[in-house]
Specification:
Number of strands: 15
Bound molecules: zinc ion
Number of helices: 11
Shape: globular
Strand order of the largest sheet: 11-10-9-12-13-14-15
Radius of gyration: 22 Å
Structural class: alpha/beta
Largest sheet: 7 strands, parallel
Order of helices and strands: HEEEEHEEEEHEHEHEHEHEHEHEHH
Strand content: 15-25%
């Protein structure tokens, strides 16, 4: 059971972030790329079918170089477990004792994996998963084969995830249905404190009273288009935020031909792109400095993007363009946050069931389902998430052939 972290002594120096050892071969990036999407994939030989680990340039059975990455169930048997009480690596030294195990996967290879506390001693059935560590590299973690209670509370597993439990979270826009669903989901997930931003504080909005009733919630005026407002809020709470969820967005229909002037497109850029930039400039440094603050450290920055960031959807053409710009900026933010061990999670939903997508036919993603997918991404510690069937389908097409998706969306 995870204990609520003690209040931080403000006199003590903040620990400098140390990261797990990060040198990996280029070929091993396949494992990391899959783990970033929450998948466990290993190389499987196209010629002889052997599954191999660690990743290599050629099949160790038949020397074939045709080694596509294939999803794995991770089922296997724990052969031996050990508890590390000493490490030459600074990251692990600060986190000892640390449990490791040797697991023979049913698919063939034997792997060394971080061992969840609920895995019984060997021999035991386990499920190996690939996770991103704080350095953003894939590692293998063995979990009990059956779900146990409070499984996410495991101290070691929490080093690989961004679980909101006992953490302080800022949701940048509490006015939308998605924002309110996020706040409720975070409260249910036992977030310690939830700051909820709302623009134009002189206007009451639907759901305001309901949000105020949630004990963890503090409503804070926040307009991401106002640099001064963002700076002042960061000065006030920036040093305490563990997870920043940026769901503020401006969304209007239409592309180029059916609209005059640049006003709407500018408003979209001001929220969707410059809003992210303002937040990143003001809150980024504080989060980076707290990436090593123990069990409730700063861990994640979540961006609400759109599947249209991958390929333009002309009926929502300028909105798509603003999301593409935001995605590019989010990649920059990710690169800058990674050395501090803070994960940037990009969320690419298909059309959401809100007023700006009224004219689109179903299926559309319900705001509560999107909020659920965003929380799941934090709990699993993934980097990129494509919630809903539409986004999943378009992602597959885009991976298969980006040109085909462009054509289909513009048809
Ligand atoms: Zn082979």
């Amino acid at each position: 059971m995870l204990e609520r972290p003690k209040r931080k002594n403000p006199v003590l120096r903040t620990r400098l972030p140390t990261l797990p050892p990060a040198a990996r071969s280029r070929i091993a990036l396949g494992l990391t790329a899959a783990a970033a999407l929450g998948r466990f994939e290993l190389q499987q030989c196209r010629d002889c079918g052997a599954v191999q680990y660690p990743p290599r340039e050629a099949c160790q059975q038949c020397l074939s170089i045709r080694l596509p990455w294939k999803p794995q169930s991770g089922e296997g048997e724990l052969l031996a477990g050990t508890v590390l009480h000493h490490s030459n690596d600074l990251f692990f030294r600060e986190r000892l004792p640390w449990r490791l195990g040797l697991v023979r996967l049913d698919a063939g290879p034997t792997v060394v994996a971080h061992l969840h506390a609920d895995v019984t001693s060997a021999p035991a059935r386990v499920r190996v998963t690939a996770r991103l560590d704080r350095a953003g590299q894939a590692v293998l973690a063995a979990l009990p084969d059956k779900e146990t209670s409070d499984m996410a509370d495991d101290r070691q597993l929490r080093e690989f995830t961004c679980d909101p439990k006992f953490r302080k979270v800022l949701v940048t826009d509490g006015k939308t249905a998605l924002g309110q669903a996020l706040v409720k989901a975070l409260a249910a997930a036992e977030a310690e404190l939830i700051w909820v931003g709302y623009a134009e504080p002189w206007k009451k909005f639907a759901g305001f009273e309901e949000l105020k009733k949630i004990p963890q919630v503090t409503l804070v005026p926040l307009d991401v288009t106002d640099s001064k407002n963002v700076r002042e809020l960061a000065a006030e709470i920036g040093g305490k935020v563990d997870i920043l969820l940026n769901n503020a967005e401006f969304h209007r229909a239409f592309g180029i031909a059916s609209r005059h002037g640049v006003e709407t497109a500018r408003a979209e850029m001001d929220v969707n792109y410059f809003g992210l930039l303002r937040l990143a400039q003001e809150f980024g440094p504080a989060l980076r400095s707290r990436g090593a603050d123990g069990l409730a450290s700063a861990v994640a920055w979540v961006n609400l993007l759109s599947i249209y960031a991958l390929a333009n959807f002309p009926p929502h053409g300028t909105y798509s363009a603003s999301k593409a710009a935001a995605q590019s900026l989010a990649q920059c933010l990710r690169a800058e946050m990674r050395p501090a061990g803070v994960r940037v999670v990009n969320v690419f939903p298909g059309p959401v069931d809100d007023e700006w997508n009224q004219l689109l036919p179903p299926p559309k993603l319900a705001p509560a389902a999107l909020a659920g997918a965003m929380l799941k991404a934090l709990r699993e510690g993934v980097e990129d998430v494509y919630p809903g069937d539409v986004a999943q389908e378009w992602l597959e097409r885009w991976r298969d052939n980006p040109k085909a998706l462009e054509r289909e969306l513009s048809a």
